[in-house]
Each structure stands twice: as structure tokens, then as C-alpha cells.
Amino acid sequence: MKHPARKLGPAPDATRLREAALQHLARFAASEATLKQILTRRITRWAHAAAQAGIAPDIIDAAQQTARASLPALITQLRSLGALNDQAFAESRARRLARSGKSRSASFAHLTAKGIDPDLAASALPPDPARDLTSACILLRRRRLPPFAPGDRLKTLGILARAGFDRATAEHAISMDAQTAEALVLAARQ
After folding, report:
1. N or C: at which end does the chain have fewer Cβ atoms within 10 angstroms?
2. What's the pTM value of the predicted model, to 2 decimals?
3. Domain boundaries, the chain
4. What is the pLDDT of residue 7?
């Protein structure tokens, strides 16, 4: 089914991009790199729609260049206002990932994929064996694996290894009794 053509809006400029950025940040947390990517896609979508509407290519190119040139100043302005803060984003996302059962290495990979500087991501994820053990227990509980349910020990070790947990943490999590592991999971939720 073909969608009806939308009316072509005005070319994205600094003001329109700022409004779009604020609307996005009001709904979602984002890193600087993610927000820049979102705004760049918005510019590209407008250019594609403008080309479909028959606007001259030189006008489209000029509008795109102007819009893309305004992005660094916009990112700097949002950072100075406090609307963008990669450190706060990384710390918040690291806590959420730990509560969902992600290992430190998986969390690091997630943060760097979101455009967070590797040094900043590493500082948001300090080495903490207790955090990794708790995250492993959360994963095991969610997947209904030992110690929360009967299961094959080697398969469980494989699941934890693929999730990024080291061997010592995986062995410790599997060998715990169910009550202790459940207490760790409940403590992490609070």
C-alpha cells in the first residue's frame, strides 16, 4: 500500500532543528552523537521529499549544507543549557542495563554504540564484582536457569559467557542457593 505524499514543509534551519531536538529530548534520553544522527536523518528526509516535490537540486543542497553546518552550534548550545549531558546519560543507562541483567562488557559495548566516548563509558561502569554477580543473577532468573530452576550447568555457563560475564562470576552465580540469589535480585530492584 502506497502512503499518500506528505506536504513538503519548510527547509530545516537552526530554529526548526532546535525545536525538533528539544521535542526529542523531552521524550527520550539521548547522547550527543545520537541526537546529531537523528537531526541529520531529519535533514536527509526533507531533502528526499524536496527532490520528490521537484525542487531544484542546487536549492536542496544549499539548504542541506546550511542545516548541517548549524548542528555543531546547536549541540553546544543544548550542552550548555544542560539538555544534553553524555556523562549523566552514560551513568543512567549503565544503571538501567545492570538492572536488566547486562554484564559490564555488554553495557560498555551498548554505551559506545550510542556514541559515548569509551573513556566516559568506562568511568560510568567501574569494575564492581558485586554488580556483575547481581546482573548475572538477574539474567539467570529471567531465563529461568540455575539456581532458580533446574537446568544444565554447561549450557548455563555458555549463556552467561555469551552475555559477557567472566567465568568466575558465572560459576559463582550458578552455585548460589536460590534464596541468596533471589535476595540479590530483589535488592537490585530497590
Report:
1. N
2. 0.87
3. 14-84, 87-189
4. 79
